Amino acid sequence: MQNKITGLIAAPFTPMNRDGSVNLNMIPPYANKLKNDGLKGVFICGTTGEGMLMTGEERKNVAERWIAEQSDDFNVIVHVGTTSAKQSNELAQHAQSAGAYAVGCMGPAFLQPARVEELVGFSAEVAAGSPQLPFYYYHIPNVSGIRLSMSEFIKQAPRKIPNFAGIKFTDNNFMEMQQCINQDGGKWDILHGYDELLLAGLAFGAKGAVGSTYNFMAPLYSDIISDFIKGNIEAARQKQLKSVKIITILNQYGGAIVVGKRLMKTLGIDCGNFRLPVSEFNEDSYEQLINDLNSEEFFEIRNT
């Protein structure tokens, strides 16, 4: 099994053209920006990447283009989740053949599993498509609606999923996350998924984290990790507070995903529009957004 992931993994936006098609040409400069910001890799086609709003063929094309940017210190994890285990298995097969580092999958939002056994069974069928790659279950109950015990999932998963590696844990149930981190002697890789609670995740034992605001705020979070490791807890708290204040502003203008995609354009990476039913950012509020962000000393943003 692969080593545990440490550091920051971005959940990138999927670049779109104005006609709604996927803009694959934007991925190489996007990858370069993330590498320059110190990111350790990407978790593509997930919630931030609008994965379930794309066709299977589009997702394969996006995966191939990101994997072409992969290196020893920049890994690509492909989210292959759909409402169909068979379709997800096919996407996992493609991810493995294309050379991905790992795959991840959230549970099906349609006809949601009511028992852990059912979720493990679904995940096992998906993971079987890429037996040579680490498999991460993507726990994000606010999106999937699946609120089953992840501690129990870890107990059962290895018996049916030989390539099980861990969980992308996007929930604020730190009691359960700590149980998962320490389960089986700390064997499993539990990736923290709440940007605004990164410091808490580190305190509970997380080593790696996946997030959407890492696309445009990675230096701040890298400093939080550095301060935490050095024992500069008060400094880490102040940086985390800055993150909280900025994310609060983003939420006032439509949320970290909607506003974040617009901010990427400001930073020179035009990710275009969203797929329905996601609402577009209100351009009339852009100038006020920038003023509000700058009031919190958001790192240099240039109006475009």
Per-chain topology:
Layout: E1 7-10, H1 27-36, E2 41-44, H2 56-67, E3 75-79, H3 85-98, E4 102-106, H4 116-127, E5 135-139, H5 141-144, H6 150-160, E6 164-169, H7 174-182, E7 189-192, H8 198-203, E8 208-211, H9 214-230, H10 233-252, H11 256-266, H12 286-295
Parallel strand pairs: 1-2, 1-8, 2-3, 3-4, 4-5, 5-6, 6-7
Helix pairs in contact: 2-3, 3-4, 4-6, 9-10
Which key phrases capture this entry?
TIM Barrel; 12 helices; 304 residues; 8 strands; single chain; 45% helix; 8-stranded parallel sheet
Q: What is the tally of beta strands?
A: 8
Low-confidence stretches: none
Largest sheet: 8 strands, parallel
Mean pLDDT: 93
CATH class: Alpha Beta
Sum up the overall morphology in one term: globular
Give a quick rundown of the structure:
The protein is an alpha/beta fold. It has helices spanning 27-36, 56-67, 85-98, 116-127, 141-144, 150-160, 174-182, 198-203, 214-230, 233-252, 256-266, 286-295; strands at 7-10, 41-44, 75-79, 102-106, 135-139, 164-169, 189-192, 208-211.
Question: How would you explain this protein's 3D organization?
Answer:
By secondary structure, this protein is α/β, with parallel strands linked by helices. It has a single domain, classed as TIM Barrel. It is built from twelve helices and eight strands. It has helices spanning 27-36, 56-67, 85-98, 116-127, 141-144, 150-160, 174-182, 198-203, 214-230, 233-252, 256-266, 286-295, and strands spanning 7-10, 41-44, 75-79, 102-106, 135-139, 164-169, 189-192, 208-211. The protein has an eight-stranded parallel sheet with strand order 7-6-5-4-3-2-1-8. β4 (102-106), α4 and β5 (135-139) form a beta-alpha-beta unit. The radius of gyration is 18 Å and the shape is globular. It starts with 6 loop residues before the first strand and ends in a 9-residue tail after the last helix. The mean pLDDT is 93. It comes from Mariniphaga anaerophila. GO terms for molecular function: lyase activity. Belongs to the DapA family. Pyruvate binds at residues 48, 210.
